Structures are given as structure tokens and as C-alpha cells.
Amino acid sequence: MSKNKKRPWDEKWEVIAKIGKGGQGETSLVKPKNDSFPPGNYVLKILNYCHQKDDERRARMSREVNNLKTFRNPGIPELIDSNYEFFEDLNILLYMVTEFIEGNTLEKFIIEKGGIDVFDAVKFTVKLLDIVEYCHQRDVVHRDIKPDNIIVRNDSLTTPVLIDFGLSFNKEDDTNLTPTGQDVGNRFLFL
Predict the structure, then answer these.
(1) Helix, strand, coil fractions of the chain, as percent rounded to 5
(2) Are 185 and 146 in contact (CB under 8 A)?
(3) For 27-42, how does the pLDDT look when each residue is reduced to its tens digit (9 = 90+)?
(4) The domain spanning residue 50 has which CATH number?
(5) Which of 8, 27, 48, 122 is deepest in the core (most CB within 10 A)?
(6) Annotated catalytic, 144?
């Protein structure tokens, strides 16, 4: 897509920097262009251009947005904006905007610190399990928990944040995007 062509988020969000790219989408650091949102930094996630016409990928993004809408927990980024209601229209580029979490991924944190004390690791894991339990109480299963999908907020091991609900599943969801028994997540992290 040409950079000169208007994208659905361009009216509301200014891209500051690219953050990353995965199999499903790409993320950028953004700030609001107007007073519709509080000032500050946010994360824009768009469905990869090559997947914009893929019904299954679009439905996954819609599911991610729907699942994020049900959460109010400091261990999960807050959904700020999206156009998921248009997921059935293949001509509309899908996006969502979430709260920006200051900090590093758990993977980067461990590499930079050279490891984590076992007692801190246990406390961190308990906090992370509280977040997972919160999700499960709302019938949402993340299905892609890995060091790259956990942010250590402000580099404090007392405040993990679980991100990227792109493969999440909600028991109330009657679609079969990823049938029971099908492998999900990162094949290199299977335990």
C-alpha cells in the first residue's frame, strides 16, 4: 500500500516509530493527533498487509479485540481504539490501539540482567499466574505465553504485563479458527 494513501488510523494517530513485526501483524509506537485520547504514547497494531484479505486472520484480530475489551487489569494492556467492527469488509485495513507499557520484554530483561534471582522469579511467576487466572475467569485462554509476550513494566519484576492476545481463545466464541488439538503458539517453546 502506498504511504500516500490514507489509512484508517491516520486521522487519529501519528506513527512515531516501528516497534516490531510478527506473523500476524506489525506494531508501531503512536501518539494521538487530537484531544479524543489522553496525550501520551500508545501501541498501534495492524494486520500485516499480506493478511488483509485473509478471512481467518481478520477474524483472529477481531477476536483479540473482543477479548481485550473484556479486561480491566493492570497486567493486560488496555484497548484504546480499533476498527474491528469492519473485520468482514476486506477492503478496510484493520487496526487496534492499546496502552503503551513502559519496560522490556521478559526475554530482553533477562538477557540484559544476566538472569533473575530464583526468589524474584517465583514472585514474578505468581504475579503472572494471577493475570492468567484473571483471563481464565473471563473464559479467555492466551495460548501464546512466552518471554517475548511478557513485558516487565518499568523493569520491575513485581509488575508483569501479558501482551499479544492474537492467538487467544474465548470459550464463548463459537468459531473454529484454531480447532481443539491444533498446535498454537511458538513451536520452539513447547514444554
Answers:
(1) 30, 25, 45
(2) yes
(3) 999 999 999 999 999 9
(4) 1.10.510.10
(5) 27
(6) yes
Domain presence at residue 2: no
Q: How many CB atoms lie within 10 A of CB 182?
A: 8
pTM above 0.70, yes or no: yes
Within 10 angstroms of residue 25's Cβ, the number of other Cβ atoms is: 23
Domain that holds residue 55: 13-189
Q: Which helix (H) or strand (E) holds 54?
A: none
Whether residue 157 is contained in a domain is answered as yes
* Structural domain includes residue 7: no
Name the active-site residue from 35, 89, 139, 144.
Answer: 144
How far apart CA 114 and CA 13 sit, in angstroms, is 37
The runs of H, that is alpha helices, within 42-170 are 55-69, 106-113, 118-137
Residue 73 lies in a domain: yes
pLDDT in tens, 138-169: 999 999 999 999 999 999 999 999 999 989 98
Count: domains in the chain: 1
